[in-house]
Amino acid sequence: MSSHNVLEGRGLKKSFGPTVALAGVDLTIHRGEAVAIMGPSGSGKSTLLHCLAGIMKPDSGEVHLLGQRVDTLGERGRSVLRRTRFGFVFQFGQLLPELPADENVALPLMLGDHSRARAVREARSWFGPLGLAGMEGRRPGELSGGQAQRVAIARALVTRPAVVFADEPTGALDQATGHDTMRLLVEATKHNDASLVVVTHDPHVAGWCDRVVEVRDGLMLTGRPHAASPSPHTASAHAVSPHAVSPHAEAGGR
Amino acid sequence: MRNLMALTWRLLRGGGRRGLLGSSLTVAAVAVSTTLLIFAVAVNFAFAGRAGREAWRSPVPAGGTARAIEAVQADLVRGRLVTVVHVAVLVPGIAPPPGLTRLPGPGEVAMSPALAAIANLPELVGRFPRTVAGTVGDAGLIHPGELVAVVGHAPADPVMSGRGTAGHRPGAPATRVAGFEGATTPDAGAYSALAAVASVFMVVPLLVFGGAAARLTVARRDRRLASLRLVGATPGQVVVMTVAEAVITAFGGAVLGLVLYAAASPPLTRVEIAGGPWFVADLWPGVLPLAAVLLAVPLLVGVSAVAGLRRIVVSPLGVAKRETPPAMRFVRVTGLLVALALVPTLGFGARVGVVVAVLGLAFLSLNLVGPWVVALVGRVTVRAARGPASLLAGRRLVDDPRSAWRTVSGVALTGFVAGFVGLLAPSSSLSAQDDVVASWLLRDIRTGTLIVLVVSFLVAIVSAGITAASSVLDRRQTYALLRLAGTPLEVLDRARRLETLVPLTVMGGGSILTGAICATPFAKVGVSSTGAITLLVCVVAGFAGVVGAGALSRPLLRSVATDPAPRPD
Ligand SMILES: Nc1ncnc2c1ncn2[C@@H]1O[C@H](COP(=O)(O)OP(=O)(O)O)[C@@H](O)[C@H]1O
Ligand SMILES: [Mg+2]
């Protein structure tokens, strides 16, 4: 295994009763790489993502994170792994409605060993770069769909994860907002040296990723690199991390 | 209209397993409310019943021709009160008092069954004439174990001349009466008044809680109803559908509540008040009051449902957004101040109805201020929070203070009285006859307060369980996604527990403590250790029950959160 492999799934199989969701998939995610998973509905994209992220145990096959096998960990171990090494952006509904945006972002840090003040300070430092300045005190119900997803992106990145998983993160947004949000997601993960695994139906979105993986009937079809299409981060990546603009970045970095 | 009803029925049945769970939560909430409401109503009828059955022993001097002479004597035998009614007939043909088929003639006696059973005790032998001329039946007895004798005399007997019967309580000097209708005794009147006050203490939190049960249904349907509005249903149609659903559910709950009450009433009859337990029939207030409760509960739930719906109906988008709740208006505080200002004006002379009305008003105003205090407690919790659980709990309290208030209101309202009365001791000596009734009264006030406190805790327990379960259901997607992202469920669990415990401790515990402290100046008479211990046991059990009820939803949390592929429904 080469050293720039962050996450590696080998021979992943998963069935739900008679339904075969994954029929043996190999997929390697490299450091800082953005991978789009595409395919028709019901083809096994979410299942693949869940197996890679330690949400589900595959029936057979192995998952390695930075050379360490993680699919054999117990539920608690995988929970900790998900909280500390991975970030997640779901379609919607992942923010706690009672908490203001900044505390929603700070939550994963508070679950770790950060003090509340430090967690909130660190969380707030992400708001400016993600175009959320002034939204810190708003609650999820008072945010637009696109803003809420950006808060979710901030929450996924605030722990400085190795890999960010996103399952149709813009599926509930209109196309223009969806594109903006997705660009921000790709740029922000890239800028923070995190890899991105994103399930999407949108070829545009796939175009911004480094690689597209097609899944059909639980099998992987292709793994074509995207030499032709430049990743968007080259244009404005400096704008999407607190490192670039926030004086707190040093305090919060690991 | 038919179509609308059909659609409502489908919505009700088609909610799936979790929708069904949501509806059953409402049913449970309404059922418990109904049970306790029936109890609160029945208590008044029970005391009124006792007062009526006892009235014949409170002779009223005849206005016109006297037809009999009646004297009442009370004394203690082995710590139990024996009531002896002496009668002499002046004009034959006078109707006997309730419970007697005929009046005993001179040299005859009629005894209550409980007295007949112990008539052979040495203390009693020779006290009554040998000839037993009947039984004092239930209709003439305060309680099943009451010791009552009716002794017949000739009008010329000394006992009938007024001398020889001291004014023992409860007793009456020889009085010439026209009949045995009698009058409500002052003691019975006092008990009825206290029962009315206790009902207010129980009913106010119940109404708050029962109304909340309706909103529970509405909240669950919010999203679906809002989409109906978006699709083009008129406000009227939405109102009809929701209200119909709430009322159907509530009626089911009310009937279940009646069944629960039937199951709970036998043990309740054994609670001793004024020296004895109750007849089974005492706890059944009659068909009309029961029917009124069974109709009023769904009606109230329907009205609350309409109130809860107002926002959706106004704007179909209104519910999709979740706004910061509006701050509490000062009006609420003024309401409380007005009610509190009225309290001192109530002297001892005030009519029971007025006392109950003012008390109810004060309670309702306290109810308006309660959520504001909960929000304050929440803000303090948020400020002090260091970990995610307490932060979340505090934010939740600020976000929806009414829901927490619903849970703690009963305990917060009755806690003061319970704390106050719980510590006071009735005078310990039962030797002086005149003390018996007074000492009963204090003990009974304590018993009654404890019952009200138990009811309050029951409301708190059920409300805590339902709030916890419904908050899990409402946030099931978020919880599931948080778990996917690695959030330990224990944190969410702890947050839920704190959300109830913090306001319960601060407001419920605070009010009990305040009551106890206010009682200390009076405790010179004697602090009752049994009272204090009973109070403590009740409080500890209540808190444990609240925590336990919250914990019941832990499996629910686990099941919604371990859904591997959470989807919005
Ligand atoms: N928890 C589950 N229980 C049963 N079947 C499931 C479950 N999750 C997914 N499936 C099935 O596995 C297949 C792949 O699902 P999924 O990975 O969600 O597809 P995709 O995300 O590509 O739409 C589908 O046929 C789906 O019905
Ligand atoms: Mg999917």
From TrEMBL, chain A:
It holds the Pfam family ABC_tran. InterPro entries: AAA+_ATPase (IPR003593), ABC_transporter-like_ATP-bd (IPR003439), ABC_transporter-like_CS (IPR017871), ABC_transpr_LolD-like (IPR015854), MacB-like_ATP-bd (IPR017911), P-loop_NTPase (IPR027417). This is ABC transporter ATP-binding protein. Keywords: ATP-binding, Nucleotide-binding, Transport. It comes from the Bacteria. Residues 7-242 form the ABC transporter domain. Residues 225-254 have a biased composition (Low complexity). Residues 223-254 are annotated as: Disordered. GO terms for molecular function: ATP binding.
From TrEMBL, chain B:
The keyword Transferase does not apply. The chain crosses the membrane at residues 20-47, 190-218, 238-263, 283-309, 330-350, 356-382, 403-425, 445-473, 501-523, 529-552. It is found in: Cell membrane. Its main location: membrane. Keywords: Cell membrane, Membrane, Transmembrane, Transmembrane helix. Residues 198-311 form the ABC3 transporter permease C-terminal domain. It comes from Sphaerisporangium corydalis. InterPro entries: ABC3_permease_C (IPR003838). It is a multi-pass membrane protein. This is FtsX-like permease family protein.
